[in-house]
Design brief:
The complex is a heterodimer. By secondary structure, chain A is mostly beta strands. Chain A is built from no helices and 9 strands. The chains are: A mainly beta, B mainly beta.
């Protein structure tokens, strides 16, 4: 079973920041938080991941709360091409891990 | 990032026939490959995990005799849907992991859309 809870859908205006929340209250100490997105009829695309500290890359920022029970993915300047389903996943980073997808959040970026 | 390809990208077949889908890691050696299935407006469902040279491990409820998985080399895994029926129509996505060292990212293919008539 997926270990995360996300809102089913969100809207965002083009050019504004999109903040996608994720609850993972049962995360264990050695599990990472990963974010992927899936644009319609394509395979999932890796966005970012983190363990404890906030992370930033060219696509997004990941803010993880101090107790690690929730996180927020931030797309700083959303574009129409960011319309997709965003999946928050918790999993190990070594060994025989499996990536289990929950329902995700369907983000609509509107002009 | 690393590239995973799938072939074909879409296939239409008659009920009762078998269909083979190939998954290749193009610029890395994948010790582990995963197969997912996705129905319209649903999330990805993990079907099976395969390690190079060994039998695949299927998730609960997935028929191993219907969905044959072969991971014969470090760059190729195949999924064969045997005696396909309309209810097998779905989007099939493979994923590959290098699995060496401390960082094990998982890369996804573009998917194969199967339509069984």
């Amino acid at each position: 079973d997926a270990k995360t809870t996300q809102p089913p859908s969100m809207d965002c205006a083009e050019g504004r920041a999109a903040n996608l929340p994720c609850n993972h209250s049962t995360i264990s100490g050695n599990e990472y938080v990963y974010w992927y997105r899936q644009i319609h009829s394509q395979g999932p695309q890796y966005i970012i991941h983190g363990l404890k500290n906030n992370e930033t890359n060219e696509m997004a920022s990941l803010i993880i709360t101090e107790d690690r029970k929730s996180s927020t993915l931030i797309l700083p300047h959303a574009t129409l091409r960011d319309t997709a389903v965003y999946y928050c996943i918790v999993r190990l980073d070594t060994g025989g891990f499996k990536t289990i997808f929950g329902a995700g959040t369907r983000l609509f970026v509107k002009a | 990032g690393a590239v995973v390809s799938q072939h074909p990208s879409r296939v239409i077949c008659k009920s009762g026939t078998s269909v083979k889908i190939e998954c290749r890691s193009l610029d890395f050696q994948a010790t582990t490959m995963f197969w997912y299935r996705q129905f319209p407006k649903q999330s990805l469902m993990l079907m099976a995990t395969s390690n190079e040279g060994s039998k695949a491990t299927y998730e609960q409820g997935v028929e191993k005799d219907k969905f044959l998985i072969n991971h014969a080399s470090l760059t190729l895994s195949t999924l064969t849907v045997t005696s396909a029926h309309p209810e097998d129509s779905s989007f099939y996505i493979c994923s590959a992991r290098e699995g060496r060292g401390g960082y094990n990212e998982q890369f996804f293919g573009p998917g194969t859309r199967l339509t069984v008539l």
